[in-house]
Specification:
The chain is α+β, with helices and mostly antiparallel strands and 95 residues long. It contains 2 helices and 4 strands, in the order αβαβββ. It has a 4-stranded mixed sheet with strand order 1-2-3-4, with no helix packed on it. It is globular. Bound molecules: zinc ion. Zinc ion binds next to strand 1. Zinc ion (ZN) binds next to strand 1.
């Protein structure tokens, strides 16, 4: 897992990955011969479901989007594929 900073000015409700850190992450993945398999972010005050912004800005249809909600004090984790035409498919997570 590669952690990147959220540089959006209102990080409680939006996220933008630091572009330099994102580039470094992609280069690290490529150099290791690995693939991007997932992208995670948290929803501090809302449910773990892709927001309209998440759907509009989901540029990696092959990746799994992991959403962690912190709204209840107990983290809730759900995973989705987000594709064209507003497609959302939940991915079952197993240990
Ligand atoms: Zn989100």
């Amino acid at each position: 897992m590669i952690r990147c900073a959220n540089v959006h000015p209102t990080p409680t409700t939006r996220y933008v990955i630091d572009p330099r850190e994102q580039l470094t992450a992609f280069r690290t993945i490529d150099a290791a011969g690995e693939e991007l398999i997932g992208i995670y972010h948290s929803h501090p005050v809302s449910q773990p479901y892709p927001s309209p912004t998440d759907r509009a800005e989901a540029h990696y249809p092959d990746a799994v989007y992991l959403l962690v909600s912190l709204r209840t004090g107990t983290p809730e984790l759900r995973a989705f594929r987000i594709g064209a035409d507003d497609f959302i498919g939940e991915v079952t997570l197993s240990a």
